[in-house]
Design a protein that fits this description.
By secondary structure, the protein is an alpha/beta fold. It has three domains: about 170 residues, 3-Layer(aba) Sandwich (Rossmann fold); about 70 residues, Helicase, Ruva Protein, domain 3 (Orthogonal Bundle); about 60 residues, Orthogonal Bundle (Arc Repressor Mutant, subunit A), CATH 1.10.10. The protein is about 40% helix and about 10% strand. The strands form three sheets. A five-stranded parallel β-sheet has the order 2-3-6-1-7, covered by helices on one side. Strands 4-5 form a two-stranded antiparallel sheet. A two-stranded antiparallel sheet has the order 8-9. Helix 7 packs across helix 9 and helix 11 packs across helix 13. Bound molecules: adenosine-5'-triphosphate (ATP) and magnesium ion. The site of adenosine-5'-triphosphate has 22 residues, from helix 1, helix 3 and helix 9. Adenosine-5'-triphosphate (ATP) binds next to helix 1, helix 3 and helix 9. It is an enzyme of class 3 (hydrolase). It is found in: Cytoplasm. One of its GO terms (cellular component) is cytoplasm.
Amino acid sequence: MNWDDTTRGAPSAPGTPAASDTEDRLVGSLADGEDQAVEAALRPKDLDEFIGQEKVREQLDLVLRAARARGATADHVLLSGAPGLGKTTLSMIIAAEMAAPIRITSGPAIQHAGDLAAILSSLQEGEVLFLDEIHRMSRPAEEMLYMAMEDFRVDVIVGKGPGATAIPLDLPPFTLVGATTRAGLLPPPLRDRFGFTAHMEFYEPTELERVIRRSAHLLDVHIEAEGAAEIAGRSRGTPRIANRLLRRVRDYAQVKADGVITREVAAAALGVYEVDTRGLDRLDRAVLEALLKLFGGGPVGLSTLSVAVGEERETVEEVAEPFLVREGLLARTPRGRIATPAAWAHLGLTPPPAAGAGPGGSGQQHLFGT
Ligand SMILES: Nc1ncnc2c1ncn2[C@@H]1O[C@H](COP(=O)(O)OP(=O)(O)OP(=O)(O)O)[C@@H](O)[C@H]1O
Ligand SMILES: [Mg+2]
């Protein structure tokens, strides 16, 4: 008997776009159009206003203070962390704290070294260059960046072929702030050229509660402390999601209640949107329910599980599973997916007698789908 695993199994239809954390998901962590429109208004403007990330804030505060005291440009800073945790926000705060202008661009926008040369050569002294998605820059641009970061110099290539010449150009000192959701994809020479790397962590519910209360204040929404706590618990550790859920709850409060967000209003509103008490949405719950009810908690192969919930395997693997794994509800093992005791508890189900041995489910065999 063979359990299919993640490395084997039916390839998805060619041309199917890779499943992603799609915009239409209320608990998706990527910014959608509405997020982008309101995020600017909700962004903390300085380090004091920035909630949570105590370590990063303390370290960055030292880096910036010291640079200011020396009257120098701050060292290059790399911000790494999942979408929606505040990387763009922090880059703007760095510029604000240094009272420096900021230039914003992104890896995908820089396909040719020339694009980068044009930006670098027009920087003012002390300017902050924010390079979002820095892991997606092209190779030649990356190499130009090495020299610019280290020596504040670029070689501008003039002409083509054998007659091309490199004209060295001195740059004013600047601070590069790179942001990436995939620090592991950065080549070591690039990573090493940053003077300071900040790893952004997921936020604690109490921190998200503060984010929500602050945003509610800015949006002129009346929220009770318990209402904020209710939303915070469902926000997957991510300020962007917290702010988005707050806006949906506000709508509900306006239409169905007197505009005030209490615990009951928040819970009822998020019930309508199918975001449960741990922040799982319809898809997450469908995956867990199939795993528990159809396969007795596993182990079951990804392909089988995907067919059972009627989704592409990429969708299950890339959209639903990461959060379920992070929450300790599901584990990926060589024999297939298994549910943890917490998953049974979360769905209010009783594990079969043989189960309950804990994550890893050592020794137990559920012979489903053979
Ligand atoms: N520490 C924080 N305190 C208050 N609000 C925050 C904090 N971090 C993020 N936010 C809010 O969350 C939203 C998303 O943050 P931001 O755009 O900085 O995330 P990001 O890490 O750049 O995401 P992406 O990887 O998608 O670019 C912003 O509107 C911001 O107001
Ligand atoms: Mg960003």
